[in-house]
Amino acid sequence: MKTLKQCFTAAATAAMLVTGLGQPAVADETCNSPYMSRLIKGQEQFLHVWTLGVKGMGDGSDKLVTVDSDPKSKTYGKVIHSLSVGGRGEAHHVGFSDDRKFIWAGRLDDSKIFIIDVGTDPAKPKVVKTITDFAAKTGYVGPHTYYAMPGRMLIQALSNTKDHSGVSGLAMYSNAGELIETYPMPKDQADIGGGDGYAYDIAINARKNVLLTSSFTGWTNYMMDFSKVLADPAAMKNFGNTMVIWDLKAMKPKKVLDVPGAPLEIRWNLAEGQDWAITSTALTSKLWLVKEDAKGEWQAKDVGNIGDPSKVPFPVDISINADGKGLWVNTFSDGTARFYDMTNPEKPKQVYEKVIGKQLNMVSQSWDGKRVYFTSSIFSLWDKKGADDEQFLKAYDWDGKELTKKFELDFYALKLGRAHHMKFSAKSDVASSDASLLTSRR
User: Is residue 97 part of a domain?
Assistant: First the structure.
């Protein structure tokens, strides 16, 4: 039997042979790293939901909940597995390794990272390694974004061990879970436009040799009750207002972009020749476009409002269509999903909206855009209180005009906790390497 390290090494070698650092592949969910070598060609069979434990509810532990998402299955729309990882550490985001066989799942409070095998049997994930010294080794806390690189995992953290502010950085790990290097976010770096040191998301356009990062807030804010954050003028000043253009190959920041209002999730247009990215700002309810100007310089531009900014809808997650022509935007405060026509990225046009629940956070859509999934939790201390604290997974079909609900799971009624981040998976005969699909992102 191979050791865990040998398995990781073999997988990494295969991934690099298939993709190469400069030749990434498309992935089935548009927010995934382009370096993933295994694709879901059709219907996703499983949906993994990283879930925050709630004291006194079930086992009270953070867990990876697996839901059958195959309409042909007898257990379609049902929870078929729940993997508890022990304790509650503010479970937040997850990301696939480049071979798509492992999920890295992290917690923002205790900074633990769980490497979970979803390749051997996606219906029954298993923890194969737990990283407990992320903070001690990197100086960062709150590992947030997990972005696959060939044989490696790039992690964006939200905070630091020194003062728990939003000043943070990136950490590169091997697929075996060993730290390779850290990269601080630029702060007051005059030669590239300053920088506030804050961090949040990662997105790569390998065609342009660009790694793009965004910014949010630190531990002192995300581990504070949301009502207290809003009422504290000092806390409200502790949010990021920048995005950073990095030289991907050199892993060095090149330019700081001014994007006020906490720019969160980043989505590149994946269509050939459409090298622009979009983000939303949580505090100002704006869509911002990141694109090269006529001189080849990267610029950020405010291209429109999300809902009524005066009502603070608080946009959170976004998901772009594979052809770049449509964008889902979720707003937490009003529980609404909005769909934008992105045919002209300079002028996004809202063409649809639907209230999904009393609060709303994450959105994931299939590669063909025909299936859309929503979850509810943002942070344990930021979720709404009382009857407004709905915790759910809801699945819809989308025909381009209307969302039609297929199933709904009440995570509180099932005693699972707070539903947060989602990832798709499938059995090996469905999710497989296909070199013919790799060319579109070269």
Answer: yes
Angstrom distance (rounded) from CA 44 to CA 84: 23
Residue 1: Cβ within 10 Å count: 4
| Domain presence at residue 62 | yes
Domain count, the chain: 1
Judged by phi (left if over 0) then psi (alpha if -120 to 50, else beta), residue 200 lies in alpha
Q: For residue range 104-137, list pLDDT tens digits in order.
A: 999 999 999 999 999 999 999 999 999 999 999 9
DSSP string, 364-417: EE-TTS-EEEEE--S-TTTS--GGG---EEEEEEE-SS-EEEEEEEETTTTT--
The average pLDDT across 325-346 equals: 98
Residue 430 in any domain: the answer is yes
Q: Which residues pair with 181 in a beta bridge?
A: 172
Question: What span, in angstroms and rounded, lies between the C-alpha atoms of 163 and 299?
Answer: 32
CA–chain centroid gap for 364, Å, is 10
Contact partners, residue 393, CB within 8 Å, separation at least 6? 47, 49, 67, 373, 374, 375, 408, 409, 411, 419, 422
pLDDT at 6 over 60: no
Report the phi/psi class of residue 386: left, alpha or beta, with left for phi > 0 and alpha for psi in -120 to 50: left
239 beta partners: 217
Query: What are the pLDDT digits (tens) for 39-95?
Result: 777 789 999 999 999 999 999 999 999 999 999 999 999 999 999 999 999 999 999
> Pick from 298, 144, 293, 325: which is nearest to 210 by CA?
298
Q: Report the C-alpha gap between 185 and 254 in whole angstroms.
A: 11
Question: Is residue 207's pLDDT more than 90?
Answer: yes
The rounded distance, in Å, linking the Cα atoms of 263 and 401 is 28
3-state secondary structure of 208: helix
**Mean pLDDT across 302-309:** 97
Domain ranges, residue 26: 1-132+362-372+415-442
Residue 287 is assigned to a structural domain of this protein = no
Q: Which residues contact 307 (CB under 8 A, 6 or more apart)?
A: 285, 313, 315, 331, 334, 336, 338
| Structure token digits, residue 184 | 């601080």
**φ, ψ at 191 (rounded to 5°):** -70, -20
Residue type, 417: G
pLDDT score at 248: 97
Cα–Cα distance measured from residue 364 to residue 264, given in angstroms and rounded to the nearest whole number: 15
* pLDDT for the residue numbered 9: 41
Q: What is the pLDDT of residue 40?
A: 73
Residue 186 is given by DSSP the state: P
Residues 6+ apart with CB under 8 A from 232: 224
